[in-house]
Fold these 2 entries.
Entry 1:
Amino acid sequence: MFTHTAKQIHNVILASQRVLLIPHQKPDGDALGAATAFAEWLESLGKEYTIFCATDFSTRLRYLPHTDKLSSDTRVWQKPIDAIVVFDSGDLVYAGVAEHIAKLSHRPLIINIDHHITNEKYGDYNLLLTGASSTSEILYHFFTITHVPINISMATSLLTGIITDTDTFTNAATSARAIHAAGELIAVGGNFDVIKTHIYKSTPLRAFELWGRIFSRLSKHEKLNLVYTYLTHKDLIEFGLTESDVEGMTNFLNSISDGHAGMILKELPDGKVKGSFRTTRDDVDVAKMAKHFGGGGHKKAAGFTIEKPIHEAIEHVLAELEKLFPHGNMLEPVLAE
Ligand SMILES: [Mn+2]
């Protein structure tokens, strides 16, 4: 099935002239790694393409090839498009393009490449592998199956996605297949050093000071067995930082040995609150928990967005979780699908 879909997508791309590439909003290393590797392939084919992203992206990912061409200019939707490729996004709203696509008079083919368990299969072609570490790993398999040579730029992009989504081969997404793909990408010239420098050695002192404040707010909800903390928009203003400066924090929740899961709530400039869950336990499903709040993700790493002031949001999420898990511990699968 995967091989068949991969070959179909390969043919669709060869037959398309104008392609629109969509990493999801606030793209992470995986979404941008996958989109830029794909862009590099389109470049080698001489295709016309645009990378559209509804929001800006973290400056630490600017080393990736073709990120200078990323555009948030909505006029790209007025030009003819043969195919749209969406990377690392469970649905088109999360991708930030649902409204744009709904308004098109001629609907182009949609290709959906993703590894989220909550993926809604919104594409005409859905290249999904929920067991894959990352969308970048899926693209590695795609290029291998379709005999597309992976050059050095593509390798660095895909390696970025695998490394960031596995939290450098430490979280639950890490598998033999992911490590094998990463090894192959390094073997063909993927630049591990540039990734290490930009991803892991680029946190300013101010950011650590803010992390300290966020860590000092860690609390444990005893009954749920949930460890949680939060960030306010006021914190960001006070420290002169943006959300991307604290994005690395969420994965630290996996290092805490207390509790069955960790949660961080971040108040964004637009007033919305972004929540992230992490767990290392096999018997806790945070994807289902996030889905309850309108979000999604993976069994061990998932997120959601709610529109409430931060302190109300904390109360709301805890109260809902208490209702969902009347016996505590977040273990029982009592959530409605
Ligand atoms: Mn991903």
Entry 2:
Amino acid sequence: MKKNDWKLIVFFLIVAGVFFFWNEMRGKEGREAVIYVDGMEYQRVSLWKEQEILVGTGNVVVTGQGSAHMEAADCPDQICVHHRPVSKSGESIVCLPNRVVVEIQGEDCEVDVTAY
Ligand SMILES: [Zn+2]
């Protein structure tokens, strides 16, 4: 019986591990960068999709590897360009002069019950 107990424990550990990892991946893939121009939604893109998006007249948003950053901008202050890349839900990069906002949305690690 002892041998079987061990097998059972190992089995549950593997199942728990796989489940945890799967949730983690889902959470990450669910995150996306939402770009707003002048308060209106302009485009949303997955953080895991490598992309360069030209926003408005001169803002270039780059996504990929789970984060987003402002690659270039034609605004005078360049605050948005110097902002560190954002990756966590709720974080954002704001370009005030050009009225461009990049916001991270999506669940970090929550199970979406509607998907089952
Ligand atoms: Zn700017």
